[in-house]
Amino acid sequence: MAPAITPWFQKQYKDPKKKYLFLVKLGSVGELWYAKTASKPTIKYEAGGSIIDGVSFFGDPFLIKDKPAVSYDPISVTLVDPVDTGDNGDAATKLMNLIGESHVKDTGYFAVKNHRQNLGEVEIYQYYPGDNNNLEQIETWKLIAPQITSVKFGDLDYNTDDLLEIAIEIDYMGFTYSKGSGDTNEVLGLFREIIQDKIKIIN
User: 14-46+61-202 in CATH: which number?
Assistant: First the structure.
């Protein structure tokens, strides 16, 4: 007997995810309610292996590489810089304080380890319109050992009334993904095996 099929009009479909329902937490800077755009992590894999013609062991071809190399593209975040009202400070001031604390005062050199520690956790939350107009958190992306690699504080121009934007690029050694708020055990992590010990030292 064929299994029963639920008609399409009786299925509980949800709308597609929306691009504009998100929030970025930039470590010690805090939650960026003024973040205009943010990119999610990007994973790149090299080819899984190369087969040498005519060489085999027990009937299986010999592979030069048995694991594909993994790399991650930096994420970019664009901020609309709010005017400092005296409560929390503007984005430019917060970023300058963060960057300044990452330099060694005696030498003036930029210390990556200090910067990763000062920056803290970088997370991207994605939401969905739930019941009674309440936002439901459906995804949490957390960067592993993040580091700000570029900050562009914007361009000034007398000929425009556009908002001033700050563009940030953040590198990372991997990331975790969790469905929902991230409080459950349904967490998937991706990071380079070679940097496990380095992450322990940084944290």
Answer: 2.30.110.20
